[in-house]
Amino acid sequence: MNILCKENRLLFRSFIHAWIVLQKPLHATLRGVTSNNIDPSVDLLKTSMLETMKKFIYNDENLDLQIKKRGMRPLGGGEIVFKCPVGKQLRPIQLCDSGMIKRIRGTAYALRVSPAMANRIVDKAKGVLLNFLPDIYISTDPRKGKQSGNSPGFGVHLTAETTNGTIYSAEQVSNVVTNGEDPSLPEDLGEAAAQRLLYEIYLGGVVDSTSQSLAILFMALGQKDVSKIVTGPLTDCAIGFLRHLKEFFGITFKIEHHQLEDEVVEGSGCPKVSLTCVGIGYTNISKRTI
């Protein structure tokens, strides 16, 4: 399977397809570009989206994504191994409190360039984030040889974890100089990724902006029970996806402004949105029951 160009969208469809359609667990090796400025990277899929998925499934023991090789645009060369169990149905959830930020983690990678690029990214990103939180650790991943793919580049992926298990993610990837774009500086990437992560924290919610559509889908496909989540302002992708769900499944979400119980506005971030629906009760008829 090749994931070049639309690589991560294919992975996104793969674990949805595996969970709600297939009879046997999915074990797929995907090759191509793992990080670019177009789609979410495999790092973001591994942290944000898989953690969102785990909130809805009953068995996440064998749900895993391993990055064997990294690959940048335009030539790719990356390789990942994705494993997904088979499920019968999804659980309804009631998640309204995202919790407080307790730590920030991240990975800065450098492929076919000097390892110092990753260190420069880390220094700049930590310089910004330390003004917000002291518990910060950003590792470096300077790949060499075949593990570094076929094109040079560098990037960084950051995550913030809350006391309730919510994950906020942000990332930045260097430009492709061969396409006529201006070359990226590691310091600029580090600062931009840190600022983006702080913005995701400001938006808040029980899922970050990238995973809104995934959470909405699993709410719609869940059991015939009420599911409710609180998110930051809906993205254009999430709004369009809600329209597709109404057209395809005939399901309508109740969307309203989320009111804080203590009416504490200062320090609570951006105004939140409450999404409520009753699932259609979709079940995987291919999964055998005992």
Fold and architecture overview:
The protein is an alpha+beta fold and 290 residues long. The protein has a domain at 101-203: RNA 3'-terminal phosphate cyclase, insert domain (Dihydrodipicolinate Reductase, domain 2, 2-Layer Sandwich), CATH 3.30.360.20. It is built from 6 helices and 11 strands. Strands 4-9-11-10 form a 4-stranded mixed β-sheet, with helices on one face. Strands 6-5-7-8 form a 4-stranded mixed β-sheet, sandwiched between helices. Strands 1-3-2 form a 3-stranded antiparallel β-sheet, covered by helices on one side. Helix 3 packs parallel to helix 4 and helix 5 runs parallel beside helix 6. The chain is globular. The protein starts with 6 loop residues before the first helix and ends in a 12-residue tail after the last strand.
Decide which structural class fits the backbone.
alpha+beta
Distance between the termini: 33 Å
Task: Report on the biggest sheet.
Answer: 4 strands, mixed
- CATH fold call of the domain at 101-203: Dihydrodipicolinate Reductase, domain 2
The outline comes out as globular
Number of strands: 11
Residues in β-strands, percent: 25-35%
**Rg of Cα set:** 19 Å
Low-confidence runs: 1-7
Strand order of the largest sheet: 4-9-11-10
Order of helices and strands: HEHEEEEHEEEHHEHEE
Q: Could you name the CATH homologous superfamily of the domain at 101-203?
A: RNA 3'-terminal phosphate cyclase, insert domain
> Helix content range of the residues, please?
25-40%
CATH class of the domain at 101-203: Alpha Beta
The number of helical segments is 6
Q: Kindly report the average pLDDT value.
A: 86
Keywords: Nucleus, Ribosome biogenesis
Domain RNA 3'-terminal phosphate cyclase: 11-255
Subcellular location: Nucleus, Nucleolus
Family: Belongs to the RNA 3'-terminal cyclase family. Type 2 subfamily.
